[in-house]
Amino acid sequence: MATYLVTIVLILLLLLAWLAVQRAYRLFARHHPELGPFRREEGGCGACSAGKCGGGHCSGEE
Questions:
Q1: I need a surface site. Which of 29, 33, 44, 58 has the fewest CB within 10 A?
Q2: Which has the closest alpha carbon to 39: 57, 14, 62?
Q3: What is the tens place of the pLDDT at every residue in 2-54?
Q4: pLDDT of 62 higher than 50
Q5: How far apart are CA 45 and CA 60, in angstroms?
Q6: Cross-strand bridge partners of residue 57
Q7: Res 35: pLDDT
């Protein structure tokens, strides 16, 4: 039973850590706009590997 509780707590901590990393990345991108657009997970500008860009630049969608 203790193993299950430790596993559940560990998974929750990992998810919270991932959210903290995403928040830190957004904050860093907001304070440093000269480094380019924020790359969103669902695609959009900055995700050219997903085939959503044309002609070497992102389309007007954000």
A1: 33
A2: 62
A3: 999 999 999 999 999 999 999 999 899 889 888 877 776 665 555 565 555 65
A4: no
A5: 8
A6: 54
A7: 85
Cβ–Cβ under 8 Å, residues 22 and 15: no
Tokens read off for 14: 């990992």
Distances (CA, A) of 41 to 1, 13, 24, 38, 44: 36, 21, 15, 10, 8
> Dihedral of the CA atoms 14, 19, 22, 24 (nearest 10)?
-100
| Secondary structure of the chain in HEC code, one letter for each residue | CHHHHHHHHHHHHHHHHHHHHHHHHHHHHHHCHHHCCCCCCCCCCCCHHHCCEECCEECCCC
User: Per the structure block, which two tokens stand in for 55?
Assistant: 């002609």
**Cα separation, 34 vs 46, whole angstroms:** 14
Q: Which two tokens stand for residue 35?
A: 């480094």
